[in-house]
């Protein structure tokens, strides 16, 4: 069953917390993964792979580069599962 | 007419001994941080590397290979003349031909042993072990020396942020020979050339010759793409290597993955859900990523630090430019 935007954001925040220890309430749509949350490329890829599994979507390598903010990632995942 | 004969070899093979050589110079993170505008802390956090070993200007891949192979042959207790084949996995040969292996065979005193190089980057050593096993069981050889030898500092661009600061120089060697029981499990190996661009040289040699302004070819990688493949795809390969060998993770004494990056090793171990009893090789912390040399170097160190592991089973897996991969369960010498 498809997740709502809010569910994807909450689920993604959980994955970010698991990987980096960043508090889930810090993971908001306007934040940049690298600039604001200081997530490095390796942690980012771990989050991406875990998100693929959690939401049953495919996030190609080329697409990862375009997902700079939490909001962009949430939008991509929400659309991809539809 | 006489019937054509076909060779037949030993029923089983194993790694009899190992040898190791690391670059003669310690290069710290501070030494490499400047040109990439980075720091010791940044490098440690992203790679787990504290320092790497590199060769000085007068030490070459052939020298490292010679030292490592000599140690392995002496430890095996066999005469160099008994070696039938010398296989060198390398991307550091200074010329496109002849092979580094032919020069090494001569230095080792194994002439006229068959000698050739393997171009399978960081998977090269596991390819070499697969070939040595096959050569011995087919009767084409009785003893084979397999060496991974690299002087990657020659093809590292100090200002490159994708891979250069990971790289080290070294050689690891194994003598493979006949055995009374199974010492090398089936190899799971393969390639995915659709990711040919993910890691490798930044330009062809001829282009560099025609346009020297662009610089000598050096290594580059798409770190994120390689990381994803190296952990999640290679975890499947590692599991298959265990399955085809009929070995459970709990029966392993050690896990010796290619020493690409500590973060890959950690995530890999997590994906495989290895029990805590399994020793995990982490030679990268002080050696760096030495491509084809990294598995035998890491195994050599693991056995030095844990001599009681000798005789146990180790899962080894190499993966890198090509993309190519190879994995097998082996009995530790």
Attribute tags:
heterodimer, A: 82 residues, mainly alpha, 4 helices, 56% helix, B: 333 residues, alpha/beta, five-stranded mixed β-sheet, 14 strands, 33% helix, globular
List how many beta strands of chain A DSSP finds: 0
DSSP strand content of chain B: 15-25%
Secondary structure tally: strands of chain B: 14
Order of helices and strands of chain A: HHHH
Helix vs. strand class of chain A: mainly alpha
Estimated helix fraction of chain B: 25-40%
Our Rg estimate of chain B from Cα atoms comes to 19 Å
What is the quaternary state of this protein? Answer: heterodimer
Short description:
The complex is a heterodimer of chains A (82) and B (333). Chain A is mainly α. Chain A has helices spanning 5-20, 41-55, 61-64, 70-80.
Question: Could you please describe the fold and organization of this structure?
Answer:
Chain A is mainly α and 82 residues long. Chain A has 4 helices and no strands. Chain B is 33% helix and 25% strand. Chain B has 10 helices and 14 strands. In chain B, helix 3 (61-76) packs across helix 4 (100-108) and helix 7 crosses helix 8 (262-272). In chain B, 51% of the residues are buried. Chains A and B meet through helix 2 of A and helix 7 of B.
Please render the helix and strand layout as text.
The complex is a heterodimer of chains A (82) and B (333).
Chain A: H1 5-20, H2 41-55, H3 61-64, H4 70-80
Chain B: E1 12-22, E2 25-28, H1 29-33, H2 40-47, E3 51-54, H3 61-76, E4 83-89, H4 100-108, E5 114-118, H5 124-138, E6 143-151, E7 169-179, E8 188-191, E9 199-201, H6 205-210, E10 219-221, H7 223-245, E11 254-257, H8 262-272, E12 279-280, H9 284-287, H10 294-305, E13 313-320, E14 324-331
